[in-house]
Design goal:
By secondary structure, the chain is of the alpha/beta class. The chain is built from 18 helices and eleven strands. The chain folds into two domains: 203 residues, 3-Layer(aba) Sandwich (D-Maltodextrin-Binding Protein, domain 2); 186 residues, Periplasmic binding protein-like II (D-Maltodextrin-Binding Protein, domain 2, 3-Layer(aba) Sandwich). Strands 1, 2, 3, 6, 10 and 11 form a six-stranded mixed beta sheet that branches.
Length: 410
């Protein structure tokens, strides 16, 4: 990980503690929470923070996702920034490039507490720009009833070739499609492609933040889509991931990629198998790593207090409560922290085969890229994926064009 050009955390916390003790009555932290609700696990921490800081109040404003991030950015640009906000990590680069948020420093111990790769989702230009607070990875869901109806044993396809063979068998021997692929003009078209790209050793940007999409690994991944096309749902450019879930529930597709929440959204009568995303010829199985983060805004005059609250919200026990109650991929290495330190009898995902699928892919996964204009980035992938699904170019031509388009994304 790159060297961070910020004050040491010790200095930040020391300053925060000193200033907290001198906080005057009326000091208010404006906290914007994207998602429309304040989660109980967060509220417990906020209440304790207020109790520990006489004279300080926290004005919680829960805003729906559709308008939340724009509201935070507009307030900051107008000179009235919130103190901190919980938002998608994808907006951090835009905020940092415009000087609207402050960089985050982690001690070596704090950095090591995160699952590998998690901090890459908030890293740009040698700094961290948010504190990850919610985390997801992906896996392949399989309807075993359809696979067995096709005459196959329902076991995990380890490679892309295995997955293609399973999809072919279902398509040719049942009334269902072998696999559902997101191809709509929507963010999870890019996300699903990255699940496969990261399962083939590919990158979007390299360690120096230079575009790296024009590669053999990307060509192999796009060729996978071409090979799967005969076994996909009808009209894949019309479908996004949540709609594929509905097709899975209706028995119209045998496989698709989704997060851990998928298990609870599927019909109880489906005999489902959840397995790692199969790997391609150039890399091990991986997954896209997506986080939502706490960002501390600049220009409030109490960045230290906001940072202190953000650190408290993402501490071991508080973060564990959020992850375990929400059913998220564990964002911290809770096994290393230890059940006793977390105040629990047993860490929820340990020895659970379902959760291990979502944990095992973390170390070989890759981040949702940080750019200023996310829509432009999304378009690079949508154009490439839809191009191969519609037969509008060869794999080589489409990847070459995507590499050129990525170089223009800010």
């Amino acid at each position: 990980m790159k060297t961070l050009n910020t004050l040491s955390l010790g200095a930040v916390l020391l300053a925060g503690s000193a200033l907290s003790a001198m906080a005057q009555d009326g000091t208010e932290l404006h906290f914007i929470m994207c998602g429309g609700e304040v989660r109980p696990a967060d509220q417990v921490v906020i209440d304790q923070f207020i109790a520990d800081h006489p004279g300080v109040t926290v004005n919680m404003e829960a805003v729906e996702w559709g308008t939340c991030q724009d509201k935070s950015m507009q307030l900051a640009a107008a000179g009235d920034p919130p103190s901190l906000a919980y938002m998608g990590s994808r907006v951090l680069r835009q905020l940092s490039d415009n000087g609207l948020i402050v960089p985050i420093t982690f001690t070596p111990e704090e950095e090591a507490a995160f699952q590998p790769g998690v901090l890459s989702t908030v890293s740009y230009g040698g700094n961290y720009w948010g504190i990850p607070h919610a985390f997801s990875t992906k896996a392949l869901y399989i309807n075993c009833g359809l696979v067995e109806q096709a005459g196959l044993e329902c076991t995990a396809p380890a490679t892309w070739e295995d997955m293609i063979a399973m999809a072919r068998a279902v398509t040719e021997n049942t009334d269902a499609a072998g696999i559902g692929i997101a191809g709509k003009d929507f963010d999870n078209t890019m996300h699903m492609f990255l699940d496969f790209l990261y399962s083939n050793g590919g990158q979007v940007y390299d360690e120096n933040d230079a575009p790296a999409l024009d590669s053999q690994q990307t060509r192999e991944t796009l060729q996978l889509y071409a090979d799967l096309l005969p076994y996909m749902e009808d009209g894949p450019i019309e479908w996004e991931r949540d709609q594929l879930r509905d097709l899975f529930n209706d028995g119209q597709i045998a496989m698709y990629v989704n997060g851990p929440w998928g298990r609870g959204q599927h019909n109880a009568d489906i005999n489902q198998l959840v397995v790692p995303v199969p790997h391609g010829p150039s890399g091990p199985s991986g997954t896209i790593l997506i986080t939502d983060s706490l960002a501390v805004f600049s220009g409030t005059g109490h960045e230290d207090l906001a940072m202190e609250l953000a650190k408290a919200l993402t501490s071991g026990a508080a973060q564990y409560d959020l992850d375990s109650t929400w059913g998220l991929t564990p964002i911290l290495d809770y096994e290393a922290i230890g059940a006793e330190a977390l105040g629990v009898d047993k860490i929820w995902y340990v020895d659970d085969p379902f959760w291990q699928v979502f944990v095992d892919g973390i170390s070989t996964g890759g981040p949702e890229p940080l750019v200023q204009n996310f829509k432009d980035l999304q378009n690079v992938f949508t154009n490439m994926v839809q191009g191969v699904l519609l037969g509008e170019g060869t794999v080589d031509e489409l990847v070459t064009t995507a590499g050129q388009e990525l170089a223009e994304v800010e």
